[in-house]
């Protein structure tokens, strides 16, 4: 989605695991994919969240205020946890987006049809699409220089270079080479947040640890693909 901004910018957000919107607000994830919706969409007045911001507030205090708001909201409404299978599938996509969907279903005691229904509801896409998207996002993070330093195998998740370019273009509407030269700062930030979350879910990074890509001066990774 096109986005332009000028000057400095402050962004704070909350990440929700698959199915959380449905558990908390009764909304499936499908209508939210590649969309920006006002908080009124979930029945929360915009000012209730934007009012937590104070220009003089320390960024950490701002984030804590948001977290406290969400904790109190969940407690006040007696909300139950999201679907467990969806949480496991998210972790599986982080760990190995090339794994068999049928094997995952068997390992977790559900039929492929049931898995298809749950994932479509909680991710807004099919299990296969979730895996394809995870594989491409990992590659994008690598191209931005915000991936785990030990993850050269990210490139090996594709059959060949043409497959890699085709998949990347499907999700980003540009080739990997174009992505490296034209990417925006906010997109890099989003990919970095996702990658940090991925390493935390896989127990390869503590929440307060220095991320692998921050140990050396930031240098974008040159694309290993052709347009």
Describe the structure.
This is Helix-turn-helix domain-containing protein. It comes from Pontixanthobacter luteolus. The chain is mainly alpha-helical. The chain has two domains: 20-77, no CATH class; 84-214, Arc Repressor Mutant, subunit A (Orthogonal Bundle). It has ten helices and no strands. It is globular. Residues 223-227 have low confidence and may be disordered.
Give a short summary of the structure.
The protein is mainly α and 227 residues long. It is built from 10 helices and no strands. The protein folds into 2 domains: 20-77, no CATH class; 84-214, Homeodomain-like (Arc Repressor Mutant, subunit A, Orthogonal Bundle), CATH 1.10.10.
Topology:
Blueprint: H1 20-25, H2 46-50, H3 59-77, H4 84-95, H5 101-107, H6 112-123, H7 127-144, H8 161-172, H9 176-182, H10 185-201
Quick tags:
227 residues; mainly alpha; Arc Repressor Mutant, subunit A; 2 domains; disordered C terminus; DNA-binding transcription factor activity; sequence-specific DNA binding; HTH_AraC; Helix-turn-helix domain-containing protein
> What is the CATH architecture assignment of the largest domain?
Orthogonal Bundle
Low-pLDDT residue intervals, each spanning 5 or more residues? 223-227
Number of domains: 2
Mean pLDDT equals 86
- Remind me, CATH topology of the largest domain? Arc Repressor Mutant, subunit A
Give helix and strand order, one letter per element, not per position.
HHHHHHHHHH
Structural class by SSE content: mainly alpha
**CATH class value of the largest domain:** Mainly Alpha
Span of the ends, CA to CA: 21 Å
Query: In percent, how helical is the residue content?
Result: 40-55%
Pfam families: HTH_18
Domain HTH araC/xylS-type: 83-182
Organism: Pontixanthobacter luteolus
Protein name: Helix-turn-helix domain-containing protein
């Amino acid at each position: 989605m096109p986005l332009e901004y000028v000057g400095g910018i402050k962004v704070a957000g909350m990440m929700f695991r698959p199915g959380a919107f449905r558990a908390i607000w009764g909304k499936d994830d499908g209508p939210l994919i590649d969309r920006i919706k006002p908080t009124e969409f979930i029945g929360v007045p915009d000012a209730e969240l934007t009012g937590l911001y104070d220009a003089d507030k320390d960024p950490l205090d701002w984030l804590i205020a948001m977290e406290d708001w969400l904790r109190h909201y969940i407690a006040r409404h007696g909300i139950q946890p999201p679907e467990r299978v969806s949480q496991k599938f998210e972790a599986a996509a982080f760990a190995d987006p090339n794994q068999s969907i049928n094997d995952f279903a068997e390992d977790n005691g559900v039929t492929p049809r049931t898995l298809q229904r749950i994932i479509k509801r909680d991710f807004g896409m099919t299990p296969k699409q979730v895996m394809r998207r995870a594989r491409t996002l990992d590659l994008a993070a690598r191209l931005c220089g915000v991936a785990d330093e030990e993850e050269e195998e990210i490139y090996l998740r594709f059959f060949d270079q043409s497959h890699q370019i085709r998949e990347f273009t499907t999700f980003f509407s540009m080739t990997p080479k174009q992505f490296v030269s034209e990417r925006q700062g906010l997109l890099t930030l989003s990919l970095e947040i996702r990658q940090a979350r991925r390493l935390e879910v896989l127990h390869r990074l503590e929440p307060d640890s220095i991320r692998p890509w921050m140990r050396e001066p930031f240098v974008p990774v040159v694309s290993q693909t052709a347009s």
